[in-house]
Amino acid sequence: MVKVSNPRVIMNKHITDGYPIPGETVVYDTTEEIDLDNAPLDGGVLSRSSQYRPIPEGFGNFGVGVVLRSENPKYKTGDHVYGIIAFQAYVIHKDVPPLTVLPHIENLPLSVYTGTLGMAGQTAYIGWKLYSEAKKGETVFVSTAAGPVGSAVVQIAKAQGLKVVASAGSDEKIEFVKQLGADVAFNYKTQDTRAILEGLENGIDIFWDNVGGETLEIAIDTLNSFGRIISCGSISQYNVTEKYGIKNLTNVVGKRLSIKGFIVSVHFRLLGDFYAEVPQKVASGEFKYAEHRYEGLDQTGQAILDVQKGNNKAKAVIVVANE
């Protein structure tokens, strides 16, 4: 029986109670060990973690791993799998784990499955397909447009012939969004969101909302009649003690706006459409993405902090092992 170190990440305080503090509220722990050859699997699989997206929810996170041992006929040694994988170097998934075996597509690194071809890309693709009701020539405003969800929405909308207005939090991110094809791109930290939107000749018809708060309020004011709001997230409100109160909800009635909140996991019946269309577009370069890579599981706390504060330069990926 030979045991090896099995480092993990421990959360000591719920991150939405304030920003994470690497080393204090998010701790890299190396005390655990695992016997890779003999640890009981109870009909499941043992995987070695490879890549993660740094999202703190419960620390059961979406990531990519490689199967080392399997007692489940769905999986074989060497399979690359995607699903909820704990922040730990080696993970036992007991019984019948909800893991997806990833196809091997040339020119695609595994890290892309934590973003554009993972939950983020699925969210953009499915949310847009179900709720945008987009028509060629309309205008969409995308917040957090340099992130993995927003950047996918920008490209989907442009491919359908829409005008895209996009915001992000740094000049570097704005340059990336422009490369994706955004017609108007601005740094919301240095430019006035309301002035930008009110200055548009034809207003906006769709708001893809990743931030909530004051930006949502401004969008409600500047949306055209029968406009659509697709509520995907509210990151501006996650780490504040006093939530921003939206003061113009009467405009939802007067303008006959629709607001759709959604959770992508309840629409996984559409994943077949997603995987039939998007991976090849990414592999060919038609669909672009960017990554900010954090090397090592010990960088998890810093990666989560950067994402929460908007300091990551692109889609954040924690690289545990290069496969």
Describe the main β-sheet briefly: 7 strands, mixed
> What is the annotated CATH architecture of the largest domain?
3-Layer(aba) Sandwich
Instruction: Count every beta strand, where a strand is a DSSP E run of 2 or more residues.
Output: 17
Enumerate the spans where pLDDT stays under 50 for 5 or more consecutive residues.
none
Looking at this structure, what is the CATH superfamily of the largest domain? NAD(P)-binding Rossmann-like Domain
* Broad CATH class of the largest domain: Alpha Beta
Distance from N terminus to C terminus (CA atoms, Å) equals 26 Å
Structural class: alpha/beta
| Fraction of residues in β-strands | 25-35%
Task: Provide an overview of this structure.
The protein is α/β, with parallel strands linked by helices. The protein has 2 domains: 4-115 and 290-319, Medium-chain alcohol dehydrogenases, catalytic domain (Quinone Oxidoreductase, Chain A, domain 1, Alpha-Beta Complex), CATH 3.90.180; 119-265, 3-Layer(aba) Sandwich (Rossmann fold). It is built from 8 helices and 17 strands. The protein has helices at residues 119-131, 148-159, 171-179, 193-198, 213-222, 250-254, 271-284, 300-309; strands at residues 4-5, 8-11, 26-29, 33-34, 45-52, 60-70, 80-86, 90-93, 100-101, 139-142, 163-168, 184-187, 204-209, 223-231, 258-261, 291-295, 315-319. The strands form 4 sheets. Strands 5, 6, 7, 8, 9, 16 and 17 form a 7-stranded mixed sheet that branches. The chain has a 6-stranded parallel sheet with strand order 12-11-10-13-14-15, with helices on both faces. Helix 1 crosses helix 2 (148-159). The longest helix has 14 residues, at 271-284. It is globular. The mean pLDDT is 91.
